[in-house]
Amino acid sequence: xxxxxxxxxxxxxxxxxxxxxxxxxxxxxxxxxxxxxxxxxxxxxxxxxxxxxxxxxxxxxxxxxxxxxxxxxxxxxxxxxxxxxxxxxxxxxxxxxxxxxxxxxxxxxxxxxxxxxxxxxxxxxxxxxxxxxxxxxxxxxxxxxxxxxxxxxxxxxxxxxxxxxxxxxxxxxxxxxxxxxxxxxxxxxxxxxxxxxxxxxxxxxx
Length: 206
Known about the structure:
Elements: E1 2-5, E2 10-13, H1 20-29, H2 44-49, H3 65-74, H4 83-94, H5 98-108, H6 121-129, H7 137-150, H8 160-179, H9 187-192, H10 200-205
Antiparallel strand pairs: 1-2
Helix pairs in contact: 4-5, 5-7, 5-8
């Protein structure tokens, strides 16, 4: 196993015993699809006394320096978002579909905006179908947001509080982009950096 040693600042390949959880998980594979026997190539004493209860998470054994520096180089530290969502924003600018990507990131940052009361499941499912974009769940979120923006009082099956929160997040992210002097500064830029928004294949790639 590759383990990082913070004292030497180097990675080293070490032979380590597996954990009890890993051993039990492997044993459970024997006989899963038919009769089987598990043979353990270590003693019962080693099993009981030398193995950790669970495997040490890789994040605790890996040098994170490269990962952190790489994320900083991408500019991800500037956004109050999970790294995958921050990267999505950067990709949105690069592939000129930033306007819709902003909406997607904002909608993904809040709980589901669909409301499904127990006594009205069929009605709520039918209402949800009106927003569905078959090619993409993310484009469905864009469709919901854009329609709600036109009429904030539409439908009984949308979580208005969540949509308003998404709108606030979107506005906050837009302000951050402006402060970082992204190209997303004017109405012209908004249109320019959304020039590929209707290119479904490219949009799904992003």
